[in-house]
Amino acid sequence: MNIEKQRCSWAQTDPLLRLYHDEEWGIPERDSRALWEALMLDGFQAGLSWITVLRKRDAFRKAFKNFDARTVASFGKPEIDKMLENPDIIRSRAKIEATIAGAKIYVAMEDSGEDFSTFVWSIVGGSPIHHQGPIPASTPLSEKMSKALKTRGFKFVGPIIVYAWMQAVGMVNDHEPTCFRRGHNRKSAK
Hints:
This protein has helices at residues 15-23, 32-45, 50-63, 69-73, 77-84, 93-111, 116-123, 140-152, 159-168; strands at 129-130, 172-173.
């Protein structure tokens, strides 16, 4: 007898969303580069659905050199023009330029001895928050995170985008109560 796992309702409709949900979404991420990549990709989602970004993620990784911040920070007009012609990614000049600017901020933090992971995780108290109740679009904590990121100069980091990112990288456990992933992060949640 094969019993299908219960998942969050948003992950039921597409095989790629199911895989992303089961293997990535909501799992606490501590790697600075991976956190920065996820934040940049969530910025590309602004005004679009996550599945659109997810389907283009490999192309984004190729275009942005696997989100190596030092490499991306050196991008200029030739790289921007090439990306604006690339149908495999979201061709938004503002979002591409925001990612390059974000790389420069990330590198500056790193060069000054500041770890991006430590910076963002310190804002949530260092461990995942186990959220109860209806899932909001943003919270006072995502507003605080958004403000901290904007103060650094990051773009496309409003409270709603930031909350989606916080969910994705496991800072907040927003798996639905019946989801098999809900309890997996409970040990590290507060």
